Amino acid sequence: MSQLNWQTERVLIWGKTYPELSTKYFETVCTAGVTERGRPVRLYPIPYRYLDTQFKKYQWIEAAIAKNPSDSRPESYRINCDSIQCGDVIPPTPDEWGKRAEVVFREPSWQFESVEELHKAQRGHGTSLGVVVPREIDTVKIVPRPIEDAKSFEEKLAALRIKLKAQSDQFKLFEESVPEEMKKLDFVKARPRVKWRCHSQSCAGHDMQVLDWEVAELQRKVGDDAAIAKMKELCNLSSYALKFFLGNLYLHPTSFMIGSLWYPKRASDRLFL
Predict the structure, then answer these.
(1) Using CA atoms, how far apart are residues 163 and 186, in angstroms rounded to an integer?
(2) Residues 14 and 115 in one domain
(3) pLDDT (tens digit, 9 = 90+) per residue, 35-69?
């Protein structure tokens, strides 16, 4: 870690994905935000549920971050989790969407008219995070995950249990000892998918998974049907000034997914459509 160029930054968090098991980092949450200047950053890996200092969406944090040398995507940064200090939260009241927008959308370079424009930026500059406003929502549904995903989850879980039981010196969590016990993590058997159209004149439609932790938690607590009903409500473009925060995959840079949603009520957000 000492060889990295660490710099202290203030970051406003706008997205967290559902936790994933990791044989290297135990458990990780892909977290994204913007700096005070409005520059988007991806902070990874973060063993969020094992942190002493936890943060919420739309909360300011201050931490030491450094460009991730193993990830060429320009927005990807390592974070020193021990350095995290939590600041103010911009609460989810109607008046506060404007205050969030002042920071989140301060930098126009990662806001795109269409997914096609985002893909063009990805090809030219490696851009891996972008905000796009949907023109139409075709369908919102729940789709079972592949059997291979469930198998991989169980294999990682078994491997981690062995390492935890042995307290292996070969397994370290950010250079600390392994946790005393594993926190229960449910495998998400199905994920919401949204078929939608952006503002490109030639848009044939996009079909994307939703990886947002809040959506997954809603599924876990109240079930798939209730979660999809809520997703359909938020995807009603007559009622909500919806925007999608899109991010790609490290191994599949042309594949973008919905990492988080921006959903102020239209009546209270006319200045930010």
Answers:
(1) 19
(2) no
(3) 999 999 999 999 999 999 999 999 999 999 999 99
